[in-house]
Amino acid sequence: MKIVLDAMGGDHGPKVTVKGAVDAVNQYGVNLILTGDEAKLNEVLKQYNYPSEKIEIVHCGDIIENEDKPVAAIRKKKDSSMVVALNLVKDGKADAIISAGNTGALLAGGLLILGRIKGIDRPALAPVFPTYKGTSVLIDGGANADCKPRNFVEFGIMGSIYAEKVLGIQKPKVCLVNIGIEEGKGNDITKEAYKACKNAPFNFQGNVEARDIPDGYTDVIVCDGFTGNVVLKLTEGVAGTIFKILKEELTKNPIRKLGALMLKSGLRGFKKRFDYTEYGGAPFLGVNGALIKAHGSSDEKAIKNAIRQAKIVIENGVVDNIKNEIKDLGADIVE
Amino acid sequence: MKIVLDAMGGDHGPKVTVKGAVDAVNQYGVNLILTGDEAKLNEVLKQYNYPSEKIEIVHCGDIIENEDKPVAAIRKKKDSSMVVALNLVKDGKADAIISAGNTGALLAGGLLILGRIKGIDRPALAPVFPTYKGTSVLIDGGANADCKPRNFVEFGIMGSIYAEKVLGIQKPKVCLVNIGIEEGKGNDITKEAYKACKNAPFNFQGNVEARDIPDGYTDVIVCDGFTGNVVLKLTEGVAGTIFKILKEELTKNPIRKLGALMLKSGLRGFKKRFDYTEYGGAPFLGVNGALIKAHGSSDEKAIKNAIRQAKIVIENGVVDNIKNEIKDLGADIVE
């Protein structure tokens, strides 16, 4: 098994990606390829101890920046760390790719270089969503702003496979994000999506209202990419604002400060539950290869966890499982 | 000025609505009409002291239940507390109506009995959204799951008037909920909505990502009713889950319990910021009359605050301001 990491991607560059890679090698014994500027990568690598045969560098002279137009960047920057990494997976020289770089470019690269799995109309981002009860998977996290009913069926299938194989949830419960519980509620697209999901080959349990998502009401949260992106970002925003207000309230006077000190470990445990760096990145499911998008602001722990996640995705044959499930489905979901 | 309260509406019935009414009369000196079962209302009323000339009862023999089909209920239950209350506003005998009853029925009743303001295609719910910086108004909170571009312009106009006249925000900043900041981001409908809003007569400041809503990035949060409902309910769900986890963490051992005790007032202040009962209800803007939907689970404080809110809506001529603004706009927004 070999995992390729776009070592130039992300807000913090090689300093963080290389450290995450070293930690993953030491902790999980994985074999890695790093794509990027060889001199820069070696400069960071030489600071650490690790089994050197486990990290290979493939030099690339170019970088896709966050400001680059996705499709144009993939087409023109052939020697970028991201495109080279994608081609390594396409050519069978690596089993999975991780990048914390330009999201749009990575998704475009997934579609253009790896291609879609036959039978999948719309690959989708499937980040883990931390809940009160544990973790759910949300799909689509933002790859497809507008969706057709059949796309929701694909999301349900892929999300179920990911929840089962990677999160270890048996017979995961799948629900459609909607503004009411009963069938017939919602906007035009969710009404159609509900009908399509009723006959789909997964454990469909109807609608979930947004209010019940954080508690862990459903294992797989299915929605279009617009709604999914709103759900992810709003959750981040609400949690961030609550932490900010909480901190202010708890430091207003000396008694409160003392109280807060006594609660330090409790508050730390509390905050950890919402820490995205614990959960790796978001797989882009439905492309013909294992592709994980790490958060742009990933630190070394997030990179390390994304590598562990890629390892689990490979070990459990997530991509092949999706291929088989979609093949078995045959013409059923083709409109 | 006279405000009519559907005293049978809401999960807790007259016990709560009547107490809220009495408190509002004593605190704000308003004149109220209560619609509902006279005997039941008097039974609660007689427990309290208040200037009796300020509360009038209009007896109704029927109630619209939460399970009733909205349009059918409005058409058939002519003697229900909700329909009678709506007719009092229509006939000029009251200046505003408040109900905590069946939301769908209340919105249908608003449209069927009060009617739309000329030039408004889609009236919308406009609840207050508590933020870090203060309060924003979200429109549409769930009345219109599918929207046309012109509806977003109407929402922006009505939301701006409400933010200015009721929340006291000068030249309120209006943003469109979207999944990216730049123009051209989003799904098909938000791309069109953005174009329509650019030329609209309010302080349009582009897109807002859901992440930035809780901090108070924008005064008026414009979106379709599906997105709005997801935003409201998810905020409630995330906050609820965080409070639950926080409570667990803070009571895990005696030291933490002691620390939590020292923080009691701080935690209370913190929770109060997210307490919907502080903010009254959601006005249904765009109908030809002042209509406020109170939360189904409103307690007496929420009812009292909804009455105060109705008073401010009337005093500041919100309905007339919308009429004038839409009239001035003329043919501009008619497709």
UniProtKB/TrEMBL annotation, chains A, B:
It is found in: Cytoplasm. It holds the Pfam family FA_synthesis. GO terms for cellular component: cytoplasm. Its main location: cytoplasm. The keyword RNA-binding does not apply. Its EC number is 2.3.1.274. Pathway: Lipid metabolism; phospholipid metabolism. It catalyses: a fatty acyl-[ACP] + phosphate = an acyl phosphate + holo-[ACP]. InterPro entries: FA_synthesis, Phospholipid_synth_PlsX-like. GO terms for molecular function: phosphate:acyl-[acyl carrier protein] acyltransferase activity. It comes from the Bacteria. GO terms for biological process: fatty acid biosynthetic process; phospholipid biosynthetic process. The keyword Lyase does not apply. Keywords: Acyltransferase, Cytoplasm, Lipid biosynthesis, Lipid metabolism, Phospholipid biosynthesis, Phospholipid metabolism, Transferase. It is an enzyme of class 2 (transferase). Belongs to the PlsX family. Homodimer. Probably interacts with PlsY. Catalyzes the reversible formation of acyl-phosphate (acyl-PO(4)) from acyl-[acyl-carrier-protein] (acyl-ACP). This enzyme utilizes acyl-ACP as fatty acyl donor, but not acyl-CoA. This is Phosphate acyltransferase. It comes from Alkaliphilus peptidifermentans DSM 18978. The lineage of its organism: Bacteria, Bacillati, Bacillota, Clostridia, Peptostreptococcales.
